[in-house]
Every structure is written in structure tokens, then in C-alpha cells.
Amino acid sequence: MKILLVFDFDNTIIDDNSDTWIVRCAPNKKLPTELSDSYQKGFWTEFMGRVFKYLGDKGVREHEMKRAVISMPFTPGMVELFNFIRRNKDKFDCIIISDSNSVFIDWVLEAAGFHDVFDKVFTNPAAFNSNGHLTVENYHTHSCNRCPKNLCKKAVLIEFLDKQLQQGVNYTQIVYIGDGGNDVCPVTFLKNDDVAMPRKEYTLQKTLSRMSKNLEPMEYSVVVWSSGVDIISHLQFLIKE
Ligand SMILES: [Mg+2]
Ligand SMILES: [Zn+2]
């Protein structure tokens, strides 16, 4: 039986947020105020749809967006971590659950040659339309009230585990690697042997430490990381047992 590694993308795999990074393609590298003010909480995909339409209307082409996206830096140690996972692929299955979009994640994995490391990528589906606008859709609908309308990462994780179980695939443990507020919901699903790995000093880590101070029940263990190399050390420890 393998260990399942679940990765967030923005600020975890890459050291920035792809949705805000792409704004550097806009004229003067910023959005008009009425556009940036148009975000409504929970409706991120709709907001990004308007941003991509604006970029398209301003003549920003696919290759320029691609160049910008693949220039985003990886988080320190992530390249080493993915090479480590590749060498130990018999011990790990590896998925991404992200609120970015399929086009950006494909570009990054393809440019760095890391497609083979990941078994599945769950994210908002995106494509360029005939006008050259990048369009993005909600990943799914769900009934979780703590998550944005387009994506509950916990629902995705549960559905993936169910599908795997139907194929006869069970995991010894889950290791969840993330940074953000939308990683809290899937982490609360983790059980006894599972490990939550929040990035040091980011929202997920702050939230988990507040939860533990409030003595909220947490069955899983928490291992904080600042670099992918810290994650390698912990994975080495897990597979040695
Ligand atoms: Mg993130
Ligand atoms: Zn949720």
C-alpha cells in the first residue's frame, strides 16, 4: 500500500499565487479599479473569468500568459521534492487539488517536466476560446458551507479516495501539503495516521495552531515546513518505518 500525497498549488508548489501573478500581463501590470473591486467573496472563478476576459480584450495572447506563468518561481526545495517523489513513485501516489486552473497548472508541470510525478490534477477547468480569451469554469458544485462555491477540496479528496477504493486502491496514510485558508477544510478530514503539512507562517499553519490552542480535536499529526527539503525529510522518515 502506498502513501497518498495531496498538494495544493499556489504558494505551495509555486512560490506565488498564479491568479495574481498573471496581472503582470495587464497594461501597466495592474487591473482597472472597477475590475479589481468587482470580486465578491466566494465567487473567485467568476472574478478570474472577468480578469481573463479583460486581458484578452487588451490583446494579451496565450503565449504571453504562458511565458508569465512558467516564469513563476517554484517554492524552495520543491524541485528536489518532486525528484525525490519520482525516485520513490512505488511508495507514493501524488495528486494536486487547486483553486487555480487547469491551463496554468499544465503549463507549469509541462515546462518543468513534472507531469509524471502527479497521478491526477483536480482544479477549475480552463481553455482558450475562439476570441483568445482564457475561460474558466467551477470545478464542481458541493454543499460545504465553509468553502468557496466552485471548490471544496475535502469533497474532492473524499471522492478521489472512494474512486480509488472501488479500484481496490487503499492508502496507508494521507500527507496533505498546503498553505491556504481553503486547505483547512480537507485537513479536517484527516485521520489517525495522516499528516497535515502546513507551510510555516501561512494561513493554514496559523489556523491549525489556533485550533490546537483551542483544544479542538485533531486526530492527525501536524508537521510544519518552510522548504520542500523539510518535506523530503519527513517522507523519508515515513517510508523508513
Ligand atoms: Mg495555496
Ligand atoms: Zn469544504
Automatic annotation (TrEMBL):
SUPFAM superfamilies attached here? HAD-like
State the Gene Ontology terms under molecular function: metal ion binding; phosphatase activity
Keyword annotations from UniProtKB, A to Z:
Hydrolase, Magnesium, Metal-binding
Q: Which Pfam families match?
A: Put_Phosphatase
- Check the record and name the CDD domains matching this protein: HAD_Pase
Source organism, top-level taxon: Eukaryota
Would I find Transmembrane helix among this entry's keywords?
Answer: no
Q: Which cofactor does it need?
A: Mg(2+)
Catalytic residues in the record? 8, 10
Q: Where does substrate bind?
A: 19, 99
Residues bound to Mg(2+): 8, 10, 179
Q: Where is the signal peptide?
A: none
Family per UniProt? Belongs to the HAD-like hydrolase superfamily. PHOSPHO family.
- This chain belongs to the protein called Pyridoxal phosphate phosphatase PHOSPHO2
Which source organism does the UniProt entry give?
A: Sapajus apella
Q: Which gene encodes it?
A: PHOSPHO2
